[in-house]
Design brief:
Strand order of the largest sheet: 1-2
Distance between the termini: 28 Å
Largest sheet: 2 strands, antiparallel
Strand content: 5-15%
Oligomer: single chain
Structural class: mainly alpha
Length: about 160
């Protein structure tokens, strides 16, 4: 993994770890909550986060748009937790494939062309954005105890 890729991986992984913790107190009855008519449901938002990172990373490695390779079908919160965990493991493996060449390679994403490193940075920002929304959803369904928005460093 390139140095730049490693830095982005560490930033992404801190937020993904919090996402996994955030989903711990979510129950099946919360999955259909959505704050407005056309919003993602809580369950679909969590799955969207997981699938999007997979899509971004696989597209960077392939050099062209690639749909997510992970299953996004769910019925229960356990299904969602498994999807997010699978995505985390898969994304970590793909991160390890990133080289400086892949990060510099142009990628056309829906008509916008930019180097892979720009899309990788956008992937991290996308995840942070939606994780923030998910914090609001979780609070709205009555879950009061939520993790800090990022992993806290260990006390020395």
């Amino acid at each position: 993994m390139s140095h730049e890729g490693q830095q982005l991986f560490e930033r992404w992984h801190k937020h993904r770890t919090v996402l996994l913790h955030l989903l711990q107190d979510v129950q099946n009855e919360h999955l259909d909550y959505k704050p407005w008519e056309n919003a993602y449901t809580l369950g679909a938002l969590a799955v969207h986060i997981a699938a999007s990172s997979d899509m971004f990373l696989r597209s960077i490695v392939k050099g062209s748009f690639s749909p997510p390779s992970i299953s996004t079908e769910f019925e229960t919160i356990d299904d969602i937790r498994n999807i997010v965990q699978t995505s985390t493991e898969s994304s970590t493996a793909v991160f390890n494939e990133l080289s400086d060449i892949l990060l510099e390679q142009p990628l056309d994403f829906n008509g916008f062309v930019a180097p892979g490193k720009v899309w990788l940075s956008n992937m991290v920002d996308h995840e942070i954005h939606h994780k923030g929304q998910l914090f609001t959803y979780v609070r709205a369904v009555g879950i009061e105890k939520v993790p800090f928005f990022t992993v806290q460093p260990s006390k020395q």
